[in-house]
Design a protein that fits this description.
The complex is a heterodimer. Chain A contains nine helices and two strands, in the order αααβααααβαα. By secondary structure, chain A is mostly helical. Chain A has one domain. Chain B is mainly α. Chain B folds into two domains: 97 residues, no CATH class; 70 residues, no CATH class. The longest helix of chain B has 22 residues.
Amino acid sequence: MSAPLAEFGLISSGASLIAAVAIGIAFGWTLERAGLGSARKLSAQFTLTDLTVFKVMFSAIVTAMLGTFFLGWLGVVDLRRVYVPETWLMPQLVGGLVFGAGFVVAGLCPGTSCVSAATGRVDGAAVMAGMFTGVLVTGLAFSSLQAFYESTARGSITLPELLHVPYGVVVFAVVLIALGGFRGAEWVEKRQ
Amino acid sequence: MKEARPYSNPYVAGVGLGLVLLAAFLVMGRGLGASGAFTSAAAGVTAVVSPARAAASPLLSRYLGGDGPWREWLLFELAGVAIGGFLSAWLAGRLKREVERGPRVSRGGRLAFAFGGGALMGLGAVLARGCTSGIALTGGALLGVGSWLFIGAAFAAAYAVAPLTRRLWR
């Protein structure tokens, strides 16, 4: 099999937009099922009363990580053709700090705000409006940020490349850390 | 209206979300996203209101080539997210028109914080080249260095700010 399908020309550009809607529906569905369309539930992550955000996020990361690792190893998917988000050290450090502060003030992130709004919550729509305004203003004032935005580029570097450790070893370590994190999360919730 | 059903087990939902992400890798060779849809829409609106300003912004003009900002893949994906979220909530009896807020915050207050937090995330997501979906989930699963840096920074900042926002919910 040759995956990713779109990279091997097996999907037209029109079909890729249909795939986008289908993947989006499944994405929105799982977020809502987990309760992540609720700002109250997301905020509880940061007061350590309900760690659903952590549990969902890390079980998703571990699942997709194991899937790509084994399917790559079996030759089902060509991992060189799967786009790894590029690393820009300082912009992503500062961007992450600003984003995290905004996340806890808003109670929702960009994807979950869409779920919140779609299920009738007006605060979800307000987060979407704020998000739109934020990227618009940043886009219009971009020239003053551009030098910083383009600093400390490291390309599509991965943890195995950074640490000079085999891919499988890092995958195994992330699984162990996640399992430890899940045990810790259950302990923190039980303590309430 | 029938009683709202309880949410799924978080680990089951997480594995489901991981399989959706894996499907995106296998079909499209790219992961999930959300903030890029907002940037593309912002580029599209700016191009209508002030084409010169849109073209002058290296961030916004990036979305104006090719098929244009309204045929951006992430915009279709995010429309799907809204449909999927709606269907799931509808079938579980969870659709409800409300402003979700704590007992000590007014509706207007909650909406103002929601808007302000959203705007901060907009700035952060532009700098980081993505948000919880495109950088944290997608790059996290592919072991991208910048993605794990973003996850650490975002959680650290959220926990640092959380004591100040606690009274929004209690």
